[in-house]
Amino acid sequence: MRTPMKTRFLALACAGLVLATATAPAALAATATAPAAARTVTIDDRGSLVGAELLARMSAGQVSDYLTRFKFPVPDRPQGADLYAVTYRTVAADGRPTTASGVVALPARSRKGLWTVSYAHGTLPTKADAGSVADGDGRAAPLMFAAAGFAGVAPDYLGLGTGPGFHPYMDAATEASASADLLRAAGELAGRQGRTLSGDVLVTGFSQGGHAAMALGKELRGQDGYRLRGVAPIAGPYHVRKAELPALLAGRLDPFSASMYLAYWTVSMNRLHHFYDSPSEVFRDPGVEKLFDGHHNFEQIAAGLPATPRDLVTDSYFKRIAEPSGAVLRALEANDGTCAGWRAGVPVRLYAARGDKDVAFANSRYCLRDLRAGGVKASLTDVGDVDHTTSALRSLPEVLDWFTGLRR
Question: Which of 335, 356, 390 is the last residue of a domain?
Answer without folding.
Answer: 335
